[in-house]
Amino acid sequence: MKKMLTACIALLCAAASFSQLTVPPGGGNKKATVGERIGITDVTIHYDRPGVKGREGKIWGDLVHKGFADLGFGTSKAAPWRAGANENTTIEFSTPVSIEGQQLPAGKYGFFIAYDPDECTLIFSKNSNSWGSFYYDPKEDVLRVKVKPQPIDKSVEWLTYSFSDETNTGATVALSWEKLKIPFKVETDYTNLQLESFRAELRTEKSFNPGWQSYEQAARFCLQNNVDLNEGLQWADNAISLPFIGQKNFVTLSTKADLLRKMDRTADADALMKEALPMGTVQQIHTYARQLLQQKKNKEAFDVFKINYDKSPNEFTTQVGMARGYSAVGDYKKALAYAQKALPQAPDKGNKDNVEKMIKTLQDGKDIN
Q1: Pairing relationship of beta strands 120-125 and 41-49 according to DSSP bridges
Q2: How far is the C-alpha of 68 from the C-alpha of 76, rounded, in Å?
């Protein structure tokens, strides 16, 4: 028994010598994760944040060495900076991207920087697990790009990665520390990535839950981005008539009509909208008429406003619609009458102010659209 107890104590002591409790990272640095979704591409950066800690003027070219150097530890004799502190800085992309115009496949990368005051080299390595850059191997480079560092006015105490200039197709990622920023542009082929995602998802449970809405969403994307209109039209047809999923309603029919119009099939589009209008809500029909006004189709817009009013003559929205419709065809007197009729029914101050502005414009003999 005594021998067994002694053995257990020895084993525990040995285990303790190799294990550590959870504590902040070494050197007083901070662990951080930052990420953004660019379109449908997730970009995630894991890094440790060193502080300036009174070393102003001694960071760049000193603490952060220039170019490649022998750090006196590990296997690398020409190591770049690890772009942070402690273990590897990593950056991960959920889809293929381009960095400063150069292609980079989806994946997780070790991120390094060979600093130079005039031009820094950014390195994306397929090795994302090593400690810092002590084991850096150029054979594992997937991509190198060159960017210019930029001075900043206000000193940044803790090294920070941030995103700016975000759109669906790209963003600028920047490392900022002390009084220097190193930015680089990340871009995605958003349109094609989105189409590929729709094609894949419409073969999953998302094709029937929520149902027609998924096909309509994909069809409208093609319409709004003017891409793959034939595929968009097929998706629109599925939203209307696919067994157990499709539904003929104002949204599905109007989306298909908009696609047909985009494809110069105007007669087919008009016929479909005649079928759709009786199915629309007051707001849906009003919005469609406003779209016609934007397209300078004033007579068609008036007819749609009139259909809406005839269905629901005592509503604020349809009365405002008639004011817009008559104004669009140049009959400001009748437009004014409908605007004045709508004013007492305004549901809130914002709408009331808007109608009062319409009335003043019409009294001045001007179009309110």
Answers
A1: unpaired
A2: 10
Using left for φ > 0, alpha for ψ between -120 and 50, and beta otherwise, residue 289 falls in alpha
For residue 267, the Cα-to-chain-centroid distance in whole angstroms is 36
Query: In terms of C-beta density within 10 A (0-12 exposed, 13-18 middle, 19 or more buried), how is residue 284 classed?
Result: middle
Residue 19 above 60 pLDDT? no
What is the architecture, at CATH level 2, of domain 191-363? Alpha Horseshoe (1.25)
Distance separating alpha carbons of residues 234 and 215, to the nearest angstrom: 9
* Amino acid sitting at position 212: W
The ranges assigned to domains in the chain are 25-188, 191-363
Whole-angstrom Cα distance, residue 214 to residue 192? 17
Q: Tokens standing for 274?
A: 């005649």
Model confidence pLDDT, tens digit, residues 260-309: 999 999 999 999 999 999 999 999 999 999 999 999 999 999 999 999 99
Does residue 117 have a cis bond before it (omega within 30 degrees)?
no
Main-chain dihedrals φ then ψ at residue 306, nearest 5 degrees: -70, -40
Average pLDDT of 323-334? 96
